[in-house]
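Pipeline run #58 for the internal structure catalog. This entry was flagged by the ingest filter as a single-chain record with no existing model, so it goes straight to prediction. Upstream metadata was stripped on purpose; only the residue string is passed forward. Reviewer on rotation: M.T. Logging verbosity set to normal.
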Amino acid sequence: MKKLEKLKLQWKGLFETMVRFPITVALLVASSIVMFIITNQSSDEILYKTFISLMIGSLLSSVLQLAYERFIESKKIRLIFAIITILLSFTYFLILYWSEMNYQVAIRTTILFFVLVILFLWIPSIKSKVTFNESFMAVFKAFFTTVFFAGLLYLGVAIVLLAFNELIVEINYKAYEYAANIIFILFAPMYFLSFIPVYPRNNDPVDEKVEKATTPSKFLENLISYVFIPITAVFTVILLLYIVINIMGDFWKDNLLEPILIIYSIGIILVYLLASRIENKFSKYFKLSIPKILIPVVLFQTLASILKIQEVGITYGRYYVILFGIFATIAGILFCFISVKKNGIIAPILIGLSVISILPPVDAFTISRANQASRLKQVLIKNEMLQEGRIIPNENISTEDKDIIVSTVQYLESSDDVNKIAWLSSYNPNDFEKTFGFSKYNRHTPVTDMYYYFTLIRGEAIPIQDYDYFMRVNLFYSPMNSDLATFTVENRQYSLFYEVVDLDEDKNPEENYLVLKSDDGFDLIKLAIDDIFQKYEKLKDFDRSEITVEEASATWENENVILTYVAEHMDLYRHVTEKKYSADGFFFIKIK
């Protein structure tokens, strides 16, 4: 009976959540429907943009509902909030609709989502008896309870579907995606919201539900005290030792440490917030000492990142590393001087820095574009390669300057910013060498080295007339004999395979062959793998990565057969002592 009553309470909680967050639930239902369409019919980019806008809207609606419950009594305002949510969701969809889905849009959307999450955490603690730490604890508990329950629910549904498929009748594999859609997009957010209490309005007293939601369970308290805090302490000691040992050397050049420091800082702040309501020796010592350690660690890495800018300039990634370093330093200082109950001040600071990072003209992308364009312009002017707004090719410049030109141009290409710079807008990515006078490849290798990669232009049609068969073949230096394909023409069977004549150490890779043999054991054609790739070495003179079908094709013919290979992808590296060639493509075969 107790289990039945508990189940009834859970369903009652979900129903109350639907009443409490009606716009959120409506947008989640719409998101689930859009995902059903994407799964079942189409993966159109517009549908993905619609889905993203609806999910942003559902989170915004939840934030506004918390604000309404905390500060506002008029029901008219709740209606206005609903209208605002719908209008802003539609506005964001229009922004996405007229934007290309690139990493800039993805990062801005992620930052927007992050800001809404911080608002969701912060609003319950504004001028309230509930602290930011307590609000964070309630969300932490709700989130991991939801993840655990939704994960188990999906696992159970998947097992049932698997059993039905194996024992009764075969079902469409998309049933698993439908189940995931309902559980993780629709049910899980509603279940999560059912754990979020109605926080006291203004200075009202904290009720029992809020107290229960914001108090860590005994299990969670032990987990934080005897697992999270010790692990954090051990990692801190290791990190401090690394800094002390390398402070005069590699520390300032070690880019791999940046992500570790970010993860470390995030972990420290999260554990600090979780430990705020726990009163034991482990927790007290941790809260007393860790902010003082956090400050110098983050300051050192932020300084290292700033120094690195002198070498590679500002990129959006390093912008965010430095920005987070600034936030973590501020947070560490605040944790040292303010009481645990008042550390919610870090929320508006984090929101402010996040908003700054996506709003021009001080956002990550505008700043990085201006910095990289400035670095490129300085090098061009230094080498007299920029005159009257036109780039003049010049091969006779230093390798260091070539590196700067290549790295800045590649960054501007990757961020789609080339056309935003007037004197660079005429640059064609396929004509780098023609524009600057030197190749973007092989700047550091001897002339005996060669590396290049090519891919077939997407959408290029490949003529197949006059051939009997075609097949996909991966070309490489095979260490052993291996079959590739068999086929039949006019009742005769043919086989295509790799043949290794001899792999003695003193022998060369030319003894790796591709052979087409008939069923009577006769070799129709036998090609050394080296001979095949030599047909493509002319492509090394191309200053572009995409090639046409004609350029990607190589043909061999004798009295028995016509054999044509069309390379779809090709990766070739040659050194004085070794060569590593590989290609994916199609063989077209005509038996005479």
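catalog note: Residues 505-509 have pLDDT under 50 and may be disordered.
catalog note: The two ends are 82 Å apart (CA to CA).
status: ready for reviewer M.T.
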